[in-house]
Every structure is written in structure tokens, then in C-alpha cells.
Write a structure and sequence with these properties.
Elements lengths: L1 H18 L7 E14 L7 E2 L2 E2 L1 E3 L1 E14 L2 E16 L5 E18 L4 E15 L5 E14 L4 E14 L7 E15 L2
Antiparallel strand pairs: 1-5, 1-11, 2-3, 4-6, 5-6, 6-7, 7-8, 8-9, 9-10, 10-11
Length: 193
């Protein structure tokens, strides 16, 4: 039964893509994003101080720029620079440190046009993530993402997306921690047609 539902879902998505008018273009595009970020630090910033345990503020805003080249209706490549937020690590009556994260990444993007205005996107990429904190370093990782795009004119599109940056860093402790930074974003894209 599950196999039949999966097969039916694939057929529906394929037929939507087949019915879509040609909204795609081939060529260069660029844009910007605004969003919110959340960090899972895998316990890297858990400390015990003389007056209690540390706290980690793991949410902030994010923004970025991107540019890419779309080859056809279903495939593009993209480069991005994202400011992934600023986070505070506090130990009561002791210190407060700021952790700042930013990333440069390269993505392969799959596209599924649904009709003459909407398309779905999915991406996979590699990233160089710079976490600016005591003991942290620039690390390589992966990025996965999904999104939806609404085309308002031949040259302009709005989109909503979610990206997860995953990488390892020892944060100066000698033990590797698995970091994940989630970026939920909205953006504007200009197509150079």
C-alpha cells in the first residue's frame, strides 16, 4: 500500500511539472535574503562556573547574498554568503562571550516548476563556516535546503527557504562537537534575462 502511495505521489508531481508553462530561464541570477537562525551546539558551550551553569542564547537573525546560473528548468548552481547570527554564552557573575557565525557556500540546486508562477527547490552544498569565538575555527561542512519560489515577473521572484548547515568544531576544547545552524529565510531574486 505504501509503495502505491509513493508511486502515486511521484506521478502527481511529475504531471504538475509537465503541465507547468515555461517559467524557467537560462542564465545568471542574484539576490538577497533575510531570516532567523537557530544553533544546536551539541553541548560545546555548556560550562560550569563558580556561580552556576552557562547559558547559551541560540537564536538570532541572519541575512545574505547569493548568485547563480540556471542551466534549464530543473538545474542550477549557486554561490552564497550568509551571516548566520550572533549568539551569547554567559556564565553567571563571570563572563559573557559572543559567538558569531558566517558561511560561504556552493550549492547544486534542483528545481520543480509547478505552474507558471510557482516552483519547488532543493539544494545540496558544501560550506566554509567561520565561527568567531574563543577556540573556534573555520570549518568545512555541508548544507542541505528546501524552498518554494513565486515568480512575480520575468525578472523578479520571491522565495521562502530553509537551510541546515552542519559542521564539526572543537570550540577550543579538543573534543569535536557536531554543530547545526538552521536558517529559515525569505528573499528576493533578480533574473538577468
Amino acid at each position: 500500500m505504501k509503495k502505491h502511495l509513493v508511486f502515486a505521489g511521484i506521478l502527481v508531481l511529475a504531471s504538475l511539472g509537465a503541465q507547468a508553462e515555461d517559467i524557467a530561464f537560462e542564465g545568471w541570477y542574484a539576490g538577497g535574503t533575510l531570516g532567523v537562525t537557530s544553533v544546536d551546539d551539541d553541548g560545546a558551550f555548556d560550562f560550569d562556573g563558580p556561580f552556576g551553569a552557562s547559558s547559551f542564547d541560540d537564536n538570532d537573525g541572519g541575512w545574505g547574498f547569493f548568485g547563480g546560473y540556471r542551466f534549464n528548468d530543473h538545474f542550477a548552481v549557486e554561490g552564497r554568503w550568509n551571516e548566520l547570527g550572533e549568539y551569547r554564552v554567559s556564565i553567571p557573575l563571570s563572563t559573557t562571550d559572543t559567538v558569531e557565525a558566517k558561511a560561504f557556500s556552493f550549492h547544486l540546486v534542483g528545481l520543480l516548476p509547478l505552474n507558471d508562477k510557482w516552483e519547488l527547490t532543493a539544494g545540496l552544498g558544501v560550506a566554509s563556516v567561520d565561527t568567531n569565538c574563543p577556540g573556534c575555527s573555520t570549518e568545512d561542512g555541508i548544507v542541505i535546503g528546501i524552498g518554494a519560489t513565486y515568480r512575480t515577473s520575468p525578472n523578479m521572484s520571491f522565495f521562502f527557504g530553509f537551510d541546515r548547515y552542519a559542521f564539526e568544531d572543537d570550540a577550543g576544547s579538543g573534543t569535536e562537537f557536531d554543530f547545526e545552524i538552521d536558517l529559515t529565510q525569505i528573499g528576493l531574486r533578480y533574473n538577468f534575462e
